[in-house]
Hints:
This is Helicase ATP-binding domain-containing protein. Residues 349-567 form the Helicase C-terminal domain. It comes from Pelagomonas calceolata. By secondary structure, this protein is α/β, with parallel strands linked by helices. The chain contains 38 helices and 27 strands. The strands form 5 sheets. Strands 1, 2, 3, 4, 5, 6, 7, 8, 9, 10 and 11 form an 11-stranded mixed sheet that branches. Strands 13-12-20-17-14-16-15 form a 7-stranded mixed sheet, with helices on both faces. 45% of the residues are buried.
Amino acid sequence: MTDIDELFGAFDEAPATQTPDERGAARKRSRSEDDGAERAPPQPRPAVRVTDPVKEDERGRNVTSFAAYPADYAAPAPRPPRPAARTWPFELDGFQRRAVACIDKTESVLVSAHTSAGKTVCAEYAIATALRDGQRVVYTSPIKALSNQKFRDLQEIFSDVGLMTGDITINPQASCLVMTTEILRSMLYRGSELVREVKWVAARRPSVRLSTQLAGPSSQVVYDEIHYMRDRERGVVWEESIILLPHTVRFVFLSATIPNAREFAAWICQTHRQACHVVYTDYRPTPLVHYVFASGGEGLHLVVDEAGAFREANFETAMACLGGGATAPDADDAGKRRRRPSGRQAETDLKRIVGVVRQQQWQPAIVFAFSKAQCERNAVALKDEPSFNAPDEADVVEKVYASALEALSDDDKALPQVTTLLPLLKRGIGIHHGGLLPIVKEVVEILFQEGLLKLLFATETFAIGINMPARTVVFTETRKFDGAPPRASQRSGAFRLARADFRWLTAGEYIQMSGRAGRRGKDDKGIVLQVLDEKMEPAVAKGILYGEADRLDSSYHVTYNMLLNLLRVEGADPDYLVRSSFHQYQQEADAPALVAEATALEAQAEALGEGGDVADAAATKAHVAARRRLAAAEADVLALSRKPAHCLPWLQPGRLATVVAPADWAPTGAAATALGLGVVVAARKPREGEAFASVDAGVACRALAPGDADPRPAHVVDVLVADDDGGAKLACVPLVALAALSAVRVFMPPDLRRPEARARVRRAVDEVARRFAERREAVPELDDARDLGLDGKEAAYGEAARRVAALRAELAATPAGATVDADAFEAREALAERARALRRRARDAQALVLRDELRKMRKVLRALGHVTREGVIALKGRAACELNTADELVVGELLMEGVFQDLDAAVAVALLSCLCHTEKAKEGAPPLRGALQAAYEQLRAAATTVARACVAAGLPVDEVEYVDRFNPDLMEVLFQWTNGAKFVDLTKLTDAFEGTIIRVIRRLDELLRQLASAAFAVGNFELKAKFDDASAKIKRDIVFAASLYL
């Protein structure tokens, strides 16, 4: 495998030389991988030693610290004492002091703490250290807006600061560079001269040409918001940039709390052969209290106090305010869309909440909603309420607003969004979401920071990265539509009760947003208010309030741009990035535990012993085999009898049933779980992503996740079963878990939420069992053939029942050996089979993830002409290397097929908007004009070509979905804009938010610049001039107004 040192040398202008034999070997290896040939086993990973956590409590502020070290780690030599690189006028917290100590030792550190805890202090110290030592330092952030803010903040502290975001480059020779992570990765891919000047981008074994530039001590790279690495779309950028940086760099990672920080630190240590410390604290400088407001109610209910205690009685009181009874969660609302309160009721609730905030003087407050339109509706609903601002504050707002927009043209100042927002701002009410004009959004942020906005209606993006805390946070909703089936969670004994399209907030999302409540040094506590418009189980509430933050799990995936950029470097191995990824590390990390579990199962099997003679062992083996065949046949009969059409009429509330959670619904490798005699509560359709688990914990049944091999059942049943404390608990199981239905029913109270009600039902069940036991009779059961009428309704039932009878006779005729116990033999075989399955999983975990995907993607590149059969990148591939803003394969097809050659600039820009506008196309859009329709059809043809190449290579691509994702809704808008239309006229052509239009145009400008580079790479200078001209035409007015932070 090519070492990353050689990879960086190859990116240099003078590529590392290879002999013809070496080049041939590299190409031969590439071809063999494409053909699916076996490769040599991977080299063993460097050993990593992780120290035990050290927990300290300092003035009630707990700090946990530990470190991951390479096996050959040698502590750095002691340095003479030096003054601190930076000091502050306040005493540092314990976690800050420990992070600073790691930086002083020139060792990497992950700082994990809640929002507003003071993580930025650690980043500032790393920058000060690098500047003191004459090094260059990079500060990366996930989004351009945050980079602009950080640039402004750091400029106030350090004089020599630069900015690089793709749109803007300021002082690129600065010692401290703020940039987006995409820019850093692009520099690493392309071997930028700027990268070479930064010491930490040295080759690990530097070539002679670079060694003089890159000599000297290591420098720092600060990754802000590293938990963004879990982002499904862009997380791959974080991983690749971390992997591609050389071993000499030292990292400072800033993150919200993550439960698997140990795993992340070990990955950094293993990847870069250096120590990585973790400093973690869950201390909140400002404690939070949580209230619930029941929709339609009058007051607030304290559910979590400052000590973190859950007030269950208050929660139950709040639920009672919602009215009505409940038997099981969502029992009578299965499969339906969420029932929202009426618009009038929601507005009334909002005004009551705002009234409480005003009365208690809990402003400033951030009011979160989960859609842009809802944010605006909430704000407009308060337009007639008393102003939050005094007259002098309103005057200041007006002056700031006018000053910020002074550079805009008169037409842009007359935009509806600009004119309608000012009256709200003067009243102390702001709006913040992705649909706002960027300059307007920045004005809102500045006014909020200055205390001139008392109420800010925002989407959850406001809680990501932007550090603007408030005293109060309000959740107008606790369910969220995210367009995808939610992941089931069984943490904290809770399961997610998601209806068809909505799900509860996850604990991680709640932590991220509620963390904006409470300003350090200003508030004695932060206030969090939840508006609930439907009943919630206490276990669900506790899961949200007390659940863990989201894990930092890799979202790594291979992109064609990455593959092409590495293939153009002769001898570079794309497998290096995959094998070095956090995704691969997490998979391999499971292997030792799987092997250990398999070994333990094998020891259990051995402990059971075989015993007996050979003949008896053979007889028992035959007996167990017959028993298993009978069990399988009985399961077939049960599946037939539990079809909804047959059993649903008998599943009335109160019917007794023998409940056995089948083995295939339990955690992997576990046996069936006998739950005993239970009571049917309700039969219903399953909710999307629902985990089959007890509401009160204790029944561990596996969750249904998207992509499961097992089909989702048509119906499930909520049952009441005994718990370990003599009471009863609710569980959700599939219909086949009802091994037998009883002829007996018991009375069911209307509300089973309280433990006392469930205990009464449990006592009734015990009384039924006792009375039949006294008569030495079993509790009567319904007969499938006679009572359920399966003989006449189910064609396959008769044959299945006869097979069961025959297998029972076979089992009776196949006795077990006298000296070998059948149960022990079967248990030993089951343990051995589970151990074998675990060892197979361990072997699979150590295989290269995404290997098949890599092979198939290479086939796609070869089929489309980006790469030759010998693995050499072609001219088309070199052009595609320049493209990463949009689908590089489709754009490459359009470019190399000459589509842009015949289009004028306006039509070309309009066509490219389809690749930059990522929102789903709206139905009923007006037809496109002739030239635009023709260009759009060419785009669809190119997309079809790419999709078919992917399908032919075996990739899971749906051709129709792939082609339809290119959205033409803004083609007319961009056509008019390129031809000189005013922005105000664009808003009349579409109902898209102004901010959405600007975001698409800015992405288009980036794509046009990349296309100009691609045209230059293939020698088409005429086309390059066309793209440069198109970029110049769209780059004007409010769309590219300068940021207020710069």
